[in-house]
């Protein structure tokens, strides 16, 4: 069976008729223009014509974003791209790339604390995505350990995939099919360190990011986790010891862009305890028993703030964002803040579980 398939793909069927190996490489390349990068890499295994077309610069240039040279300069010297195939450039950009937007505080953090802002190309569509760590944000009370703590996590999808490459190692890059990072994993944090709130009355998180985003419609969201998570006996567990106050008043999310666009939304981060009609039973139960089954607890959730449009890529887009709950009549706590994400609207549906509008 294997030999028959090999003959079909390389030399044609045993009766001497035409096979896939007889298709001109230029025709295969025309078909590849309509396929996704992973599909192209899978078909490249069929025969030499398909392999040749799958390495064509003409094919891969159509998969790259219009500002791919700017993105490439984040990782390698500006002249390195001239010696690489477009396929290799695409594979490199599919990994998260740290970038500096000129904020001096961010530069210090990058050298001492790791990645704060990353951008990457979605390996299925070639669209540009980015994420900003809580480390790059201004958080009220973050210096006081009575309120906030920085918590390391082994869940980070960036740390597991980020490879530091220089110009000399680009020739040894993995092929695209070996690129494991595909943006967001719904069950994990994006970054290796998250901000954990124990208790506070004035809750406010602000941030700014500036980047030459290519033309597209983007959605901005905060990634939040109710409860403190850890691993015990190889299993992921969450503690809700400090989680309280998020069902009393909603959190307000906002953003504005340098070209005048803005959006806001409000959302309760937790669910109120429901009355099941048996008050005596409720009084005997632990107050946390209901919340441990709440779908908003114990998982990473992306809270959508809104959408904005970028029409020109020749200038930087600055986005200011915030989330706050500043009603000081009650305290709140037991919450992890991971990041703010900016991704094309069309990719939002691929992020799986945990997206709230």
UniProtKB/TrEMBL annotation:
Family matches, as CDD domains: F-box_AtSKIP3-like
Pfam families: F-box-like, PP2
Biased composition (Low complexity): 279-288
Superkingdom of this protein's organism: Eukaryota
Domain F-box: 17-63
Family annotation (PANTHER family): F-BOX PROTEIN PP2-A15 (PTHR31960)
Protein name in UniProt: F-box family protein
UniProt organism field: Striga asiatica
